TrEMBL record:
Gene3D superfamilies: 1.10.8.60, 3.30.230.10, P-loop containing nucleotide triphosphate hydrolases. Residues 563-758 form the Lon proteolytic domain. It comes from the Bacteria. PANTHER family: ATP DEPENDENT LON PROTEASE FAMILY MEMBER (PTHR10046). One of its GO terms (molecular function) is ATP binding. One of its GO terms (biological process) is proteolysis. This is endopeptidase La. Keywords: Coiled coil, Hydrolase, Protease, Serine protease.
Length: 801
């Protein structure tokens, strides 16, 4: 059966024949303009982009290195270019509530022009309005108003003066107001003269003065009314003059935005505010203390007429596509900045900054979910914004109870499609524990990591290489160079029937092969350069692999690769160090003896065993019971261990190996130490597929080669793993020379025969195995254990009696 189970040379690796390509170099190939092997994901993304109903945002899952980000951006950009460009967004002052500034949409590409127009308007009015108020017509009109009202005030005072003379009184103006003085003929009474008057006369004069004081108050009230009327008429005239100037200048701006109702409404509000606050445009007035108004204060006041450009679409074709690599709250939702002014922090609507969500408004926003979830406030706010279709730009410090009073801009209407990129774990976490997630992200696009290897996909690989060469400015690849990259794609996925879609590592090999070709002054990249790139890459990363290997060479780690031993088998394990995975053998030993504890897993007892490995060991009890305990119980103890294992063991790929060691120990038949074994086993005795088969075979081969190839060495693998074989050429060469072999097995019975050279045995109708088979000798050993235990039990009963 050993020869029958040997894997044929042609099955050890799938070679890509360069003759299948009809080109000499990739310079003759049309660069790839489609996505390889991701039809499911592409269709899902396209559906999500075109679906306009609420909640159809997209979550893209898939392993790292499959090109999710690049592919998604390409698909989204192709969709975006067919859509109309969304409006610009500016923030404007709310003249009714300066703490609630408003956002204003504008026709795409007009935001900056609109802001500049209003800046020029303010600068122009600072010149025109003072000139208007200093011009002769304005001054003459003001003088005419003042003269007219002055005459009315003069008439009022003349009437008051006549009334005073009739009452022998005189009205005198003092710093504290108007004072009434009694007259003695043509002269005011002196104090001495007034006191000499008879008391009755003095009282009459005082009563007259008191009564006249009310006339003065009535007259002063009327004068105040006249002053107010004068001021009102002057202000009204000044307002009309200012409105005339402002309107004439602003009408030029209105003409450019006559089809945008919101803009026109804002310009009307601004015009009225400018007329009401025309003094801001006039030369600075001195304050009561004689100091001039600080220039910075005046400029801050005029900021009310500025426009804060949040987003300008000038030059944009189609809808925006924004990828936010650092989704902090401020980067996604925007911020309200502050600056120091006169010892305090101040802010206004001109210091509001937009985030990527507003930048993508009307288009598409791409985020990496792992980065988003590191900022919980971002995730919660993002869901709220997408559900309500409104964007709030807020000051986070205020929500946390920090900082001073700030702005609360009115929300922006939001129309954006969000695409989240992530792995399976965050997707499952959100789907299971976030009740709103499935309502918002209804589309899942799942990227595959492999594609079936067909002539078509191989040709697409060649086009992909041509595209990378074009985009990165690399040397063209020859046909055999392309073949080498295709074989790398097969080996990366451990399958002869699949190609890897993890293009990140494939691109790295292409670039590094180009480097070695240029270093040799070659004009083309050949298969030799691709192999050089792969081997050099591994050399840079495999120091740890070499250190481990040295331990096998100097016998620090005890491994026999020749001879035979009872209850001892070489298992195979895979070490993972970053990008590098490599296999190395481990010795498994089994000791069997009388007793009832069953299988004792030393790794488990010493807490060095993982759950999967524990499960694999427990399965062994099921198989042993099924095979050997149908007529009588197993009176058996088994001790299993990985020798020289100190860092823990997990996985069930050694379960068949452990079973072979147990069968060898029970039967007393030695196992060939030149054969290493991998494969998990079920309770039926079927050998199941495992991962890392190529690394395991190559790792054992390296150890055997270092210790010396004998021709009787090799690796036994599950038959289901033959399709995964993509072995390195040194292993294939050794197999071709007969120095090494690969065996495939589907059952434990096939495996034990290869390892021992003795048939496993087939039971008869009564369940007895032939004596000269492995299972026959196991059965005999178990019967002896049972008989011996019965004798001991009987002897113990006699002793007790």
């Amino acid at each position: 059966m050993t020869a029958k189970n040997e894997v044929q040379l042609a099955d050890l690796r799938c070679l890509c024949d360069p003759s299948m390509f009809n080109f000499k170099t990739t310079a003759d190939v049309d660069p790839l303009d489609q996505v390889i092997g991701q039809e499911r994901a592409v269709r899902a993304i396209t559906f999500g982009l075109e679906m306009q109903s609420s909640g159809y945002h997209i979550f893209v899952t898939g392993p790292e290195g499959t090109g999710k980000t690049t592919i998604v951006q390409e698909i989204v950009r192709k969709a975006a270019i067919t859509l109309p460009s969304p409006p610009d967004w500016v923030m404007i002052n709310n003249f009714k509530d300066e703490y609630r500034p408003r956002s204003l949409p504008l026709t795409p590409g007009q935001a900056v022009r609109f802001a500049k127009s209003l800046n020029r308007l303010v600068s122009d009015l600072k010149i025109r309005l003072p000139k208007t108020f200093q011009a002769d017509p304005f001054r003459e009109k003001v003088n005419e108003i003042q003269k007219r009202y002055g005459e009315r005030k003069k008439a009022q005072f003349e009437t008051l003066d006549r009334s005073a003379r009739e009452k022998h009184l005189k009205v005198e103006k003092t710093p504290s107001g108007y004072q009434t003085v009694p007259m003695d003929g043509e002269e005011p009474f002196t104090q001495e003269a007034f006191e000499k008057l008879p008391e009755q006369q003095r009282a009459a004069i005082e009563e007259t003065v008191q009564a006249f004081q009310e006339e003065i108050q009535t007259a002063m009230l009327e004068v105040s009314r006249i002053n107010q009327a004068q001021q009102k008429e002057i202000q009204q005239f000044a307002g009309e003059s200012a409105r005339f100037v402002v309107k004439n200048r602003m009408d030029l701006i209105r003409e450019d935005y006559r089809d945008q109702e919101k803009v026109l409404r804002f310009l009307d509000e601004m015009q009225e505010d400018m007329v009401d606050n025309v003094g801001l445009f006039l030369p600075q007035q001195k304050e009561g203390n004689g100091n001039e108004v600080p220039p910075d204060t005046l400029e801050l006041s005029l900021n009310r007429y500025k426009v804060n450009v949040l987003e300008d679409r000038n030059g944009l074709e189609g809808a925006p596509v924004v990828f936010e690599p650092n989704p902090t709250y401020q980067n996604v939702f925007g911020r309200i900045e502050k600056k120091a002014f006169m010892g305090t922090l101040v802010t206004d609507f001109t210091m509001v900054q937009s985030g990527s969500l507003l930048q993508a408004n009307g288009g598409f926003l791409i985020l990496e979910v792992e980065s988003v979830l590191t900022h919980p406030q971002v995730w919660e706010s993002l869901k709220r914004a997408l559900q309500n279709k409104r964007l709030f730009i807020e000051d986070m410090t205020r929500d946390m109870g920090l900082g001073t009073a700030s702005l609360r801009p009115e929300p922006v209407e939001l129309d954006v499609k969000v695409i989240l990129l992530g792995g399976y774990e965050p997707f499952q976490l959100l789907q299971n524990y976030d009740s709103k997630f499935n309502k918002i992200f209804k589309v899942r696009a799942d990227f595959d990591y492999e594609v079936a290897r067909t002539d078509e996909t191989v040709r697409l690989y060649a086009q992909f290489i041509a595209r990378v060469c074009r985009d990165e400015g690399l040397l063209p690849f020859t046909a055999d160079g392309v073949s080498a990259v295709v074989e790398y794609g097969e080996k990366a996925i451990d399958s002869k029937n699949k190609l890897s879609l993890r293009f990140g590592s494939v691109v790295a090999v292409i670039k590094e092969a180009d480097y070695w070709a240029k270093k040799e002054n070659s004009e083309l990249v050949t298969s030799a350069h691709v192999v050089k790139a792969f081997t050099e890459h591994r050399f840079r990363y495999n120091l740890y692999e070499e250190k481990i290997h040295e331990n096998y060479v100097d016998d620090t780690i005890m491994i026999d690769v020749a001879g035979e031993a009872v209850g001892q088998v070489n298992a195979l394990a895979v070490y993972q160090m970053g990008e590098i995975a490599f296999g190395r053998p481990s010795r498994i030993t089994a000791e069997t003896y009388m007793g009832k504890p069953g299988v004792v897993n030393i790794e488990r007892e010493s807490k060095l065993s993982g759950k999967t490995h524990d499960k694999g060991v427990l399965i062994l009890s099921g198989y042993l019971g099924r095979t050997f305990a149908q007529r009588y119980p197993l009176n058996l103890s088994i001790s299993l261990t990985f020798e020289q294992s100190y860092s823990g063991v997990d996985g069930d790929s050694a379960s068949s190996t452990e079973l072979y060691a147990i069968l060898s120990s029970l039967s007393g038949i030695p196992i060939r130490q030149g054969i290493a074994v991998t494969g998990s086993v079920n309770q039926k005795g079927q050998v199941q597929a495992i991962g890392g088969v190529n690394q395991k075979i190559e790792g054992f081969f390296d150890v055997c080669r270092s210790k010396g190839l004998t021709g009787g060495q090799g690796v036994m693998i599950p038959a289901a793993n033959v399709k995964n074989l993509m072995l390195k050429k040194s292993v294939i060469a050794a197999v071709e020379k007969g120095e090494f072999a690969i065996w495939q097995v589907a059952t434990v019975e096939e495996g034990i025969e290869i390892l021992t050279g003795t048939p496993a045995g087939t039971p008869d109708a009564e369940g007895n195995f032939p004596q000269d088979t492995v299972y026959g000798r196991v059965q005999k050993k178990l019967e002896n254990y049972l008989k011996q235990s019965l004798k001991l039990k009987k002897a113990g009963e006699s002793f007790d009696s």
